């Protein structure tokens, strides 16, 4: 009976070591690979926000001027989208 318990405990210990190794490997991947990918995505988001900030005002101005000359009274901005507008 005692030998069975000892064998079972050794088996559990081996499984625990295996799990700890797997967790350690996962932590390394998260700290190294994932943080690099997150940094790339963050840089991309910053780039898109800068481009949007530079484009939104001139594009809204251009749309509003064209509407003025076509006698269309709709005022367009990229920030305020009117979803109830019908195109008839």
Low-pLDDT ranges: 84-88
The tally of beta strands, per DSSP, is 0
The number of distinct helices, counting runs of at least 4 residues, comes to 1
What share of the residues lie within helices?
A: over 70%
Approximately what portion of the residues adopt beta-strand conformation?
under 5%
Instruction: Characterize the overall form.
Output: rod-shaped
Mind telling me the C-alpha Rg?
A: 30 Å
* Helix/strand order, N-terminal first: H
Average predicted local confidence, pLDDT: 80
Largest sheet entry: none
Backbone structural class: mainly alpha
Distance between the termini: 86 Å
What does this structure look like?
It is built from one helix and no strands. The protein has 88 residues and is an all-alpha fold. It is rod-shaped. The model is unreliable at 84-88 (pLDDT under 50).
List descriptors.
88 residues, rod-shaped, mainly alpha, disordered C terminus
Give the SSE map.
Elements: H1 2-69
Short structural description:
The chain has 88 residues and is mainly alpha-helical. It contains one helix and no strands.
């Amino acid at each position: 009976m005692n030998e069975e318990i000892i064998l079972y405990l050794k088996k559990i210990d081996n499984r625990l070591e295996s799990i700890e190794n797997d967790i350690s490997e996962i932590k390394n991947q998260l700290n190294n690979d994932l943080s690099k990918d997150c940094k790339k995505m963050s840089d991309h988001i910053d780039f898109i926000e800068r481009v949007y900030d530079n484009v939104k005002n001139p594009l809204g101005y251009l749309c509003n001027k064209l509407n003025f000359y076509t006698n269309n009274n709709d005022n367009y901005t990229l920030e305020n989208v009117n979803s109830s507008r019908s195109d008839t």
